[in-house]
Specification:
CATH architecture: 3-Layer(aba) Sandwich
Mean pLDDT: 97
CATH superfamily: Vaccinia Virus protein VP39
Number of domains: 1
Shape: globular
Helix content: 25-40%
CATH class: Alpha Beta
CATH topology: Rossmann fold
Structural class: alpha/beta
Distance between the termini: 31 Å
Number of helices: 7
Strand order of the largest sheet: 3-2-1-4-5-9-8
Strand content: 25-35%
Largest sheet: 7 strands, mixed
Number of strands: 9
Order of helices and strands: HHHEHEHEEHEEEHEE
Amino acid sequence: MTDSASDLRRASAGTLADYASNAVSFEAGTRDHDVSQNIDALLRHLPADRALDILDFGCGPGRDLRAFAARGHRPTGLDGVPEFAEMARATGAGPVLLQNFLELDLPREAFDGVFANASLFHVPGEALPRVLAQLRDALRPGGALFSSNPRGTNQEGWLRGRYGVWHDWPQWQALMIGAGFEPLEHYYRPKGLPREQQPWLASVWRRP
């Protein structure tokens, strides 16, 4: 657990540094990951008759920015790793904000959807309610947020150079409802496997 501003800064800085030092290999290793199930989960709760403004929170090298743009939407990326932001901008799929998750500066009610795929679990538990509230306020009323996190038993700490929180469904549900979201659906990934072989918890939420 973190218990001070310096601990939060250390968790953030260490995680960003680890991703930065592995940026090229991370891009190569995740380039072909199929997360269409997650993209579909967000989009089915949003209007289908127009282009949508989507914030890809933790966009990394930009794989999912391209996917949203290919579907006719207007994605904006956000990442705290300068190397990832540069890669994502190079896709030409949309603007990319270079922002630390713990120091967000987002426009209010600017997005129809937020896509947080494998990103929010890096926010320390102490800071998560504030970050979720900022993402809620960045959504337009009626907008939706998708999240996918590696699940666990609510343990928090360092793993191979990166800080994370491994939420279970009751804790994650309580955090999201506490931040003012309404639940829409949740499921486990990868699809079609026994639960013990599904390490990812995915969920979709509405800003009322």
